[in-house]
Structures are given as C-alpha cells and as structure tokens.
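Quick start: load a record and inspect it. Here is ATP-binding cassette domain-containing protein:
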Amino acid sequence: MSDIILRTEGLTKHYGGVHALVDADFELRQGEHVAIMGDNGAGKSTFVRQITGVERRTSGKVWFDGREVDFPGPLHAREAGIEAVFQNLALADDLDVPSNLFLGREKILFNLGPFSILDRKAMRQATEAALKRTAVKIPNLGNTIRHMSGGQRQCVAIARAATFASKLIIMDEPTAALGVQETAQVENIVRTLKDNGESLILISHNMRQVFDLVDRIIVFRRGRIVANLRKEETDGQDVVAYITGAKSQNLAAAAL
Ligand SMILES: Nc1ncnc2c1ncn2[C@@H]1O[C@H](COP(=O)(O)OP(=O)(O)OP(=O)(O)O)[C@@H](O)[C@H]1O
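Running the structure step on this input writes:
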C-alpha cells in the first residue's frame, strides 16, 4: 500500500490572465511535515486553496488518501479529512472554547422539534481530551474567544483542526501575527502533531521555524515549484537562493 497521503499532478490555477499556479507536481507522505516557502505572490496560498476545495482548479489532478478527488467546496475537503488553519481564523468570537471546537459538529443531547439541546458536558470533556492530546494549554475553557490573545485563538484553531483532521492539517502562516511566546506555543503543538504521526503542510516565511519543524521544504516561485529540498541537504542560504531565483532545480516532480 502506498504511504502517499496527498499527490498533485500538473495542478494549475489561472485567474484570468494571471497564472498563479502552474503545473505543480507534489507528494506528501503519511506523517510527513512539509513547509511551503516562497516570496509574496509566489502561489503558496493558491496551491493550498486548490487542495482544500476553496477554489476550483483550472487543470491538473489531485489524489488524497488513495483516491482521486475534486472537492466542490471546503466542507467536502473537511469531510475527507483535510483541515486548514488560515490566518483569518474561522472562530466565533462570542462562544467559548468547547463551542468553537465543535462549531458545526455539535454533540446533541436530544432534539426538541426544531431545537436541539447540546451535550455541553460531553463537548467539554472531548475538548479537554483534544487539548491534552495536542498539548494545547488554555487556562479557562469557559472564556469566550473575544477575551483571548491572538496566540490562544490560534491554539484553539489548531486544536480544532487536530481534533477533526484525521489525515492532513494545513497551516497558512500560523504564527505570522504572534509574539515570541505565543509562537513557541504554536510550534510546540506542531511538534506534538509530528509525534502523533499527523501529516502537515506548513506555509511559513520564518526560516528558523521551518528548519525547526519540518522534514522537507518546497519552494514556489512565480507560480511554479522550483525546489524540493530535504532539510538535512539544505540550509537557509540555499533556500533563499531558490526563493529569489538565484538558483533553480530541474524538477521532474516535487516528489520524495
Ligand atoms: N482571486 C484572485 N484573483 C486574481 N489574482 C489572484 C487571486 N488570488 C491570488 N491572485 C494572484 O495570484 C498570485 C499568487 O498569489 P498567492 O496568494 O497564491 O501568493 P502567496 O505565495 O500565497 O503570497 P503571500 O505570501 O503574499 O500570501 C499573485 O500574483 C496574486 O496576486
């Protein structure tokens, strides 16, 4: 059986005349952590949007968990086991942590006609278990998201992704807006995900973070994958050379 969880072949996205993503061949192994790097506008987020069903691709093929997929929307990708943590977090400000973790997937105690009574105790217990598993520390689960710091919000979003994504987590610059301590907390969660065998794609501009956390680095430039580098075979200077275009690989596929 193949241990490739995600594969793209010739993945391409045009916005009118803008060729945002061109012919991306990519593979991710089960349990592997891969970083996607590249300058602003290089096509990183576009790539992720085609995989997560946020947009429909122009051409190319995607396989996920052993079958060819073309998700019509983000919900379909989530149902298949892909969870994405984007910068603009989809959290509900006025709800507490368990309610956010189970947003759209609430545990129901019983239904009264059009009304449902939520099983708050079960949701709280499941939340505590999820946070423990992902090493997320949140002092008061009853606090509404509105009263939390940026770092705590990010942790809730990641814990939610890790709770429900059985197969692949994608993070798009998860620490871009965070302070030093909060960044360290998010990075610890990512390490725990690795220990738990979760597959991860991390978009990041932070070289230190990337070298700390991932196994492999993919570099995008002007919509194309220009490098596929195993961490131990490269360094920051080398990666920057690919990002700026000073260097390029002759890639048949950004494979393993
Ligand atoms: N909806 C859209 N309509 C038109 N052009 C778009 C659209 N979304 C992205 N683009 C263009 O596609 C290219 C790739 O953008 P993308 O957001 O994927 O880059 P990125 O590598 O994620 O950059 P950043 O690091 O700044 O987030 C850019 O030239 C961008 O302007």
